[in-house]
Amino acid sequence: MAALMNEEGGVASRLQAAAATEDLWCLALGLFQVWMFVVVFLIMLPAMFGLSLGVTGVYIQVLVRVLEWATLRIQRGRREQPSVPVPLPNGIIERVGGSMEEEVGQLRRSQSLAGGKFALSDAFYFYKKGLESIVDDQVTQRFSSEELASWNLLTRTNHNFRYISLRLTIIWGLGVFVRYCVLFPLRITLAIIGLSWLVIGTVLVGFLPESSVKSWLSELVHLTCYRICARGLSATVHYHNRENKPQKGGICVANHTTPIDVVILANDGCYAMVGQVHGGLMGVIQRSMVRACPHVWFERSEMKDRHAVTSRLRAHVAAKTKLPILIFPEGTCINNTSVMMFKKGSFEIGGTIYPVTIKYDPRFGDAFWNSAKHNMVSYLLRMMTSWAIVVNVWYLPPMTIQDDEDAAQFANRVKSAIAHQGGLLDLAWDGGLKREKVKDSYKEEQQKMYSSIIAGQNAASSPKPTEEQ
Amino acid sequence: MGASQTRSGKYQDLADKTGFSLEQIQNLYKRFQQLSGNEETISKENLDSIPALANNPIRKQIVDAFFDKRNQHQGEVGSFEEIGFEQFLMVMSHFRPPTLKTTEEEKEALRKEKLRFLFNMHDTDNDGTITLEEYRKVVEELLSKSGAIGQEAAKAIADAAMLEVASTNVPHMAPDDFYEGITFEHFEQILKGLEMESRMNIRFLDVDTTTMRCGKTTS
Q: Which residues of B touch A134 (CB under 8 A)?
């Protein structure tokens, strides 16, 4: 009798344990279902149709209020503890302008030299310029992230902001929790869904024969996936001047800050991408994309041959029915405070150029990809744990090459237009300086300028010998 | 956040030695990090890779001046392979402008320091004089190798200038006398009228001279 009761008791407890684990499973399943419901119906489906529930808008507004409050607290904290340092936005030294001629002339005048041919003091102009360049130059700072005037409650931008108050630290802690535990899993889910849908969808569309239905479907698939990916980054994009959107058979050029630029632009229209063939996951995505609509992927060997590249792009543009090509002429990622030299190769293809300016708001997250510091995966993780990505995209009116300019001048014209629209600094330096050195021909330019000053003086001060005789 | 506390003690020493404010030292330290790629020392290659410096015809002399032991005011000669932040600051301190509190003697001393720095830049073999060879080198570097002035003409210009210096400083030179070179005293004499206070200064900014803004920076 006791043995039976024991057995019953054992069975009962086992049943209880089984029931408990089943409960746990049910709970987990239930949570998962709620999660997927939220993701699919509240985020994915609206994204597919280009609608928005407005949640992100509210989130951004709340965030702006919080950051403004944080800024005021930090400023108050600075006034109370004056040893807290301030980042200087315009460089750390004061620069006096003036061309080479003016400055050299001033140096000589202060010595009251009577038009000497060469004076030791001339060298001083170059010493001073050289020292100024060592202390502060325009190019080296473009390859690292922009420094903010006030902290935006992300540890990664905390260069010299110290402990100010308890409330600020609590808000910061709350921010960490929200970003890592709530937003991050959501974003990862969306990103995975978006990318797999891209691969599957384009492969499916690729089975159809060439027809207008196929292009319409491939556009739909591409747009949907990019919209889901954009939600996966909490990206809010404001498009301006949409009447200037790139048309078929044109070339779209934009300034380059991060690989995410592609997602941002492709949210609003379909483009034919240009790039190198990669291996791995990127390669899979590239191969499936090209089944649905013609992108231009180059083998590594082909990239070295400029003519092959140009002729392939030309053929693409000449077929007026193909999607506009998307090119980033800077060739490398710059930190979104300036626009560097545009390589003229893209401007030799012909066709209409549609310039686009992309400006990221640095308060919500640092979008710049410093490829020396982070690889692609850690960069994407950083993006997914920022507050949000807020972008302004301006479509500029189309431009074509004029008769009296060559490709390099045309490139500069387009670059100035893009820089002007976005409020970015227009630099003539080459972005390739991130990895290489400057050519010696630049030094010779300055030498020529100086020698013409001296030669000019020589001609003026020394009489011609033949006249004397 | 704690590391910066110990650094400020070290910065106070540097501030006393070089005359920069704490804030300026912090800004310069960030620049040092940028140039060195977050290492402890800078080599000549790091300075050579600054694009704006590549423009400068006498960049070699300027870069060498940073590695010159004479500019460290410790009585040594020769040159370093690499420099640390303290040496970087010492070289920079030659270009500090005088403040309102500097007395006349201090201004004189500052001026002499600047002249000494520039003299060292020319006097590469450290024999105390700038010889004709050394002078010629500077002129050649400044003028174009292929441009309005050829090499022979550049040489002639250097010779003429040197002759002028000689005649100013040693007015009663006999025809057989050989002018050794410009000594430091002669150098000072030549540049007596040169207004150094505004020409050879670099005004380092700090918070008193800029206005604080909230929001993002504009460049």
A: 35, 47, 50, 53, 62, 66
